[in-house]
Amino acid sequence: MNKLSSADYTVFLVYFIIVALYGLWVYRRKRNADATSKDYFLAEGSLTWWAIGASLIASNISAEQMIGMSGSGFKMGLAISTYELMGALTLVIVGIFFIPVYLRNKIFTMPQFLHERYNGTVAMIMAVFWLLLYIVVNLMSILYLGALAISGISGIDINVCIGFLAIFSIIITLGGMKVIGYTDVIQVFFLVLGGLVASYIALNLLSEKSGTSGILNGLAILKSHASDHFHMIFKKDNPNYLDLPGLSVLIGGMWIVNLNYWGCNQYITQRALGANLKTARGGLLFGAFLKILMPVIVVIPGIAAYVLYQKGMFHQEMLSSKGVLDVNKAYPSLLDLLPAGLKGLSFAALTAAIVASLAGKANSIATIFTLDIYKKAIKPDANDRQLVTLGKLSVVVAMLLGVVMSLLIGEQLMGEGKQGFQYIQEYTGFVSPGILAMFLLGFFWKKATSNAALFSTIGGFVFSVFFKFLPRFADLKFLAPYGFSKLNAENLYEIPFLDRMGFVFIICVIGMYIISKIETANGKVPNGLEVDTSMFKTSRAFTAGSLIVAGILVAIYTIFW
Q1: Contacts of 279 (CB under 8 A, 6+ apart)
Q2: What's the rounded Cα separation, in Å, for the pair 526 and 221?
Q3: Rounded Cα–Cα distance for residues 344 and 45 (Å)
Q4: Tens digit of pLDDT for each residue in 119-138?
Q5: Cα(242)–Cα(75) distance, rounded to whole angstroms?
Q6: Residue 279: count of CB within 10 angstroms of its CB
């Protein structure tokens, strides 16, 4: 266990050399001596649809997500795929309704949208907030949990892994959005190939353990031996209902999670903001198809590990240091079964996932700091050369901050037995309902005012905290028959996380509506954006692709309801 052979290191070295050389080639080929700041940060006009789509997924999937979602597959089954599958449909919706508004109004950053639609105060508050969130929460968690995963598989010291990941990510990020976008295509190739190999090995092993052979037999055994793991929608009596509360994954809070992540997030939308509408939509549609593939790569191995565990395997490998079953060790335990060479491929896939996420985050940090804080508040007359130089410097500083925090408090917050990743998801979820309400009304309702937006961002957070701690001073048992509360580990009736987000979103929308109505009645004229229905027309190819995505999702939910 925890050893890589020389063949594994050779495969990993080949991966490293391919990414580095390709990144250098892209940088030299597409470098422009007079490159503007928009060209550096957004790869203006130079990313193709397939590069945008691959980059979206590479930035989205990181090692802790692969390992965490596999662990959830082990624990609760196929239902955890709803994050990926609803994400695919969300990408289509963002392509139809969000991206045209951004591109028509020449929006390049999320704070810029808030500045033009509301005012500078809202924009600056959110710019500082996003900067802190990306550095303190995202960079640190990706670095620490990613290094933890790589260290667990390779046996290399975790501090060395943190340093290596940071340096590799800085090298790619300094090349700008073009290099990130095109190297992400290779990262996704390794990510998908490594994931498919792990799934193949797991299913094949399962069929061999049952006296047959082949992955189709493995799938059939999986379904028969873990039939309870093949339901997409949980009933109220399911022990995992608090995580995925029934129909809320289809018509409730899951939409807030996905629309906020894919539509209002600099880290994600940045890939499409430098392209024209046709290319951006093509990239989002390609990303949607890749998203549908993710459960096969990540969740199926987790369910396979569950069945193998029932058959007597992994009983030692999946124990924590305290002797308790740790579901997050399902994926690493499976990878340990891979033969020499293939284990190196999966090691490369994990590294690709981490580095792509780190590079994307670092580039977004640099973009927001340079264009929305430095250019707006510190030095408005800064030229493009100064902005690009500052952007590169802020990448290095942000990554160093991430490394320092990982080394100092990573173990304390996210070490073994800690629910670090879940806490991070919930922390982000405290603000996403308010942010989404502010963006949606800003897009599609011209009367939304800046004070209403402030209420949504600050009030949304306050209401999220209120609903989180409500069970401590109020008995919510009366909501249980409707599926809006369930007994938690502390024997309190708690509102499921996704439902909480739904309630806060509704409150934010109502609050924004009332405040805006009062202010406009008193003569306040809000800033408007250029929006007309012709912007939302799609090409036949995009429409056909979107219908195929929707059809696949309907089929999956119908078969595995």
Answers
A1: 47, 48, 49, 52
A2: 60
A3: 36
A4: 888 888 888 888 888 888 78
A5: 13
A6: 18
Is pLDDT of 356 > 50? Answer: yes
CB 87 within 8 A of CB 549: no
Structure tokens at 345: 């491929």
Q: Which residues of 130-141 are buried (b: 16+ CB within 10 A; e: fewer)?
A: bbebbbebbbbb
- Find the radius of gyration of the CA atoms of the chain: 23
Cα 546 to Cα 465: distance, rounded to the nearest angstrom: 37
Q: Tell me the Ramachandran region of residue 338: left when phi exceeds 0, alpha when psi lies from -120 to 50, beta otherwise.
A: beta
pLDDT tens figures, 469-521: 888 888 888 887 877 778 777 778 888 888 888 999 999 999 999 999 999 88
User: Structure pTM?
Assistant: 0.85
395-413 residues labelled b (16+ CB within 10 A) or e (exposed): beebbeebbebbbeebeeb
In the chain, the amino acid numbered 19 is V
Candidates 548, 50, 61, 557; CA nearest to 294 is 61
- Take residue 481 and report the two structure tokens written for it: 């028959």
| Sign of torsion over alpha carbons 91, 94, 97, 103 | negative
